[in-house]
Design goal:
The structure holds two protein chains of two kinds. By secondary structure, chain A is mostly helical. In chain A, 70% of the residues lie in helices and 0% in strands. In chain A, helix 1 runs antiparallel to helix 2 and helix 2 runs antiparallel to helix 3. Chain B starts with a helix and ends with a helix. Classes of the chains: A mainly alpha, B mainly alpha.
């Protein structure tokens, strides 16, 4: 029990610190790497909650795919950090004051009294051979199929919107259509002109 | 999942299939594809209406489908039908405008259809999960639609503000929902209400969640102090997008408020009533006073929206003030009537803005309306009807809708608030009547002819006449709202 307790607080501390690092680090690549760390520790906490499938998916999908892509984008974009951080210090003090008051108020309301471990009984041990993934798959495609489909539509809309917003034909780019290139004939390119030789 | 589930959600399923199909067909249509996609989209909305009408003689029983995620009741059918009308009118009004600006693309209509799907999901949501998914689907489409006018820096800025603040609001809403889930152990709206009614659930956590839910809701309705995005988005978006953002989503937001507050948390009405009261007072003051200082019509109408949404909140809180009985039903019915008629007025007012805009000219400044009565007497008269109705002058419907809200307030003993709302409306009448004064008593500065197509002119006329007709005979729509609310909350 004590090990579980220690592990939870260790992971939580790393999670909160890496979350803070994401927004506080100067270098965007470092920030993205801190986000990777945050995902890792979050998945460890999920693992402790017996949510193996979600924990593994978080690592595979977010750390493995999304964040790698993110890192590439961050590295390729030439972000001017000083301009982005303009006014950061000016907003920091009022932000900290307001945020601090809000956190204090929230902590007073949702303290241990309501969300402490005593209020949440330990879940029953799963039977041998119980598969988290299978259970999830079963409710996802039966009980929650409506929500699942709507989420799929959400992704479709995101794709449509992203393409509609970024795809544009520029007039000034020099662009060669490969189909035209293949179809081209020699006589389209070279015009032979017969003309009388110029006399002396 | 049974065939009955699919039957209940037939309109949504059809819309999703048709929208996806239009997305593909649009690519193959060739020349003038914008026009063809427009026609197909209008047809889709009409067929959705037919599918929803098939459920109409619904009675008082609500039909749950998809393991309690979806609800088909009289409220959902009524609000969906209103949404179809609003979206179809938006499409007709914006066609000429989009064409003149080269924005007539298939994506515009496809995103509108998917946005409508989001509204429908929200309207017939019976679970926090579907409320949130519907809201996100609708919002994502609206953000993209505002941003579609890519060459305008103002539109991009408006879309960015809308997106960032909308995402923040969604986050707040989600956080509140997670608290409610933590306290009650269920996401389904009727079960949450039942869990709260047992009294075993800890109230502190519930109220904590409620605060965040109400905040998210207030962002979406655009009421003070969560109104900052409204004027900027209304002003920055292209007129056709402002028309859309300012009309149909209000119906969905009303549905969300009904589902979340009256549906899942009637047991906490003492708490949310206070929050709504504060926001309504602030909205009525800020909306009406700030609108006086505006010189841009869209910005003025945005502040007018804020004050009108304050009235909707008054209706909702009057409904929460009484536990059951006919007063509760009357108050909710008044709020619904107010929302529906407001959408009608908003469509008409922005329709006139679109009517006067033409290629390279946006009729945005108040000065553009000077002497409109001499140029186009009929449309000036229609605008006069909209302004009178927004201000609440009889015999337009705006008078009756304000009256019914005030009646509901007085019935539950909020007499002082009713007097205050009336005073604020009188102050608000100033800026509505200023438009009328500019149209009828000033010399015109702009002499260009109208380019609007016939269908838009006819529909706009119908829109204006409907406002007058509903004002003279409001009973048909009011009885409809009453019967919807009777089946929802009982009484009568």
């Amino acid at each position: 029990m004590i090990i579980e307790w220690l592990a939870f607080y260790a992971f939580s501390t790393v999670l909160v610190l890496s979350g803070l690092a994401v927004i506080l680090l100067r270098n965007p690549v470092h920030a993205a790497l801190s986000l990777v760390l945050a995902f890792f520790t979050a998945s460890a906490i999920w693992m402790m909650l017996h949510a193996e499938f979600l924990a593994i998916t978080l690592v595979l999908v977010y750390v493995g795919a999304v964040m790698v892509l993110f890192l590439f984008v961050v590295m390729m974009l030439d972000i001017n950090l000083d301009r982005l951080r303009e006014g950061f210090w000016a907003y920091l003090v009022p932000g900290l004051v307001v945020g601090g008051i809000m956190i204090a108020e929230m902590a007073m309301v949702v303290a241990r009294r309501y969300f402490g471990p005593a209020r949440l009984p330990h879940p029953a041990e799963a039977a041998a051979g119980y598969s988290n993934t299978k259970a999830l798959g079963q409710v996802l495609y039966t009980q929650y199929v409506y929500a699942f489909e709507i989420a799929a539509v959400l992704l479709l809309v995101a794709i449509v919107a992203a393409i509609a917003l970024t795809l544009r034909k520029r007039k000034d780019t020099r662009y060669v259509d490969p189909a035209d290139q293949v179809k081209v004939k020699s006589k389209d390119r070279v015009r032979l002109v017969t003309m009388a030789s110029e006399g002396e | 999942m049974t065939p009955a589930d699919f039957g209940a959600a037939s309109a949504e399923i059809f819309l999703l299939c048709a929208g996806s199909l239009i997305l593909i067909v649009d690519l193959l249509l060739g020349d003038r594809r914008g026009q063809k996609t427009y026609a197909l989209s209008l047809l889709t909305v009409a067929l959705c209406a037919v599918l929803s009408l098939a459920h109409l003689p619904l009675g008082d029983t609500a039909q749950l489908a998809f393991s309690g995620l979806f609800i088909g009741d009289s409220l959902s059918i009524a609000l969906k039908l209103a949404t179809y009308v609003a979206v179809a009118v938006c499409m007709v009004y914006s066609r000429a405008y989009l064409q003149a600006r080269g924005l007539m693309q298939g994506e515009y209509f496809v995103l509108m259809l998917f946005g409508m799907l989001g509204m429908m999901v929200q309207i017939s949501a019976n679970s926090f999960l579907t409320v949130y998914l519907g809201l996100e689907l609708m919002s994502l489409c609206l953000y993209a639609l505002v941003a579609l006018n890519r060459d305008s820096a103002r539109s991009t800025e408006a879309a960015m503000k809308y997106f960032v603040l909308g995402a923040l609001a969604s986050g707040l809403l989600l956080y509140g929902m997670s608290m409610l889930y933590g306290a009650t152990g269920t996401l389904e709206i009727d079960k949450v209400a039942a869990a709260i009614a047992t009294g075993d659930v800890d109230k502190t956590v519930l109220v904590f969640g409620l605060v965040f839910v109400v905040t998210g809701l207030a962002f979406k309705l655009g009421v003070v102090p969560f109104h900052m995005w409204v004027p900027d988005v209304y002003e920055g978006a292209a007129n056709a997008m402002t028309l859309l953002v300012g009309s149909a989503p209000k119906i969905a937001a009303f549905a969300m408020a009904m589902r979340l507050l009256a549906g899942s948390m009637p047991g906490l009405s003492d708490q949310w009533q206070q929050m709504l009261m504060l926001m309504a007072w602030a909205s009525l003051a800020v909306g009406n006073l700030a609108a006086i200082a505006q010189t841009n019509v869209k910005r003025m109408l945005a502040y007018s929206t804020i004050s009108q949404m304050g009235f909707v909140l008054l209706g909702l809180l009057a409904g929460g003030a009484v536990g059951g009985g006919c007063c509760e039903r009357d108050a909710y019915a008044a709020a619904m009537f107010y929302t529906l008629t407001y959408v009608l007025m908003s469509l008409g007012a922005f329709g006139i803005v679109l009517l006067l805009s033409r290629a390279g000219f946006e009729a945005e400044s108040l000065d553009d309306y000077k002497g409109l009565s001499r140029r186009h007497p009929w449309f000036a008269f229609l605008m006069l009807l909209m302004m009178f109705s927004l201000a609440g002058v009889p015999p337009t419907v705006g008078f009756y809708s304000k009256l019914s809200i005030l009646q509901a307030l007085v019935q539950v003993g909020h007499g002082a608030t009713a007097v205050y709302a009336m005073l604020m409306s009188v102050i608000g009448a100033f800026y509505y009547l200023r438009v009328v004064k500019l149209m009828y008593f000033d010399a015109p500065t702009d002499q260009a002819a109208l380019h609007a197509p016939l269908d838009m002119r006819v529909l706009l006329s119908v829109n204006g006449v409907a406002i007058l007709a509903l004002g003279v005979a409001p009973s048909s729509l009011m009885n409809w709202c009453m019967s919807v609310m009777t089946s929802l909350v009982g009484g009568g």
